[in-house]
Design brief:
Blueprint (H helix, E strand, L loop, with lengths): L2 E5 L2 E4 L4 E8 L8 E6 L6 E6 L5 E3 L7 E6 L4 E6 L8 E9 L2 E4 L3 E6 L1
């Protein structure tokens, strides 16, 4: 059974930083790409960042230069380092993996950025 568990969210002032973690189990970690999504209040879920099995990364325009996605294959964990946080970064952040054409999600971690 695939299990994704996010942590590291919290309340931070604008300009601050947070590091999110996504612990995984039930997948052959090293062969899968992983994604971070977020859902702000009253908004649809949107893709934030992706990392391939080889470590290539992609970012949505609204986080480029501020967020960094990374992975630790030994710890089967995906990270999202978030710097220069803005109020509009507020939302629930979700870890995602697609395995055998099925989408798996964690329960999410809340990030709140205050002005």
């Amino acid at each position: 059974q695939v299990y994704l568990k996010e942590s590291g969210g919290g309340l931070v002032q604008a300009g601050g930083s947070l590091r999110l973690s996504c612990r995984t189990s039930g997948v052959t970690f090293k062969i899968h790409p992983f994604n971070w999504y977020r859902q702000g209040p009253g908004k649809q879920r949107e893709l934030v960042a992706s990392i391939s099995s080889s470590g290539q990364t992609e970012y949505s325009e609204f986080v480029k230069g501020r967020f960094t996605i990374s992975r630790d294959n030994a710890r089967t964990t995906v990270y999202l380092q978030m710097n220069s946080l803005k109020v509009e970064d507020t939302g629930v952040y979700y870890c995602h993996v697609n395995r055998q054409q099925y989408d798996f999600w964690g329960q999410g971690t809340q990030v709140t950025v205050s002005s």
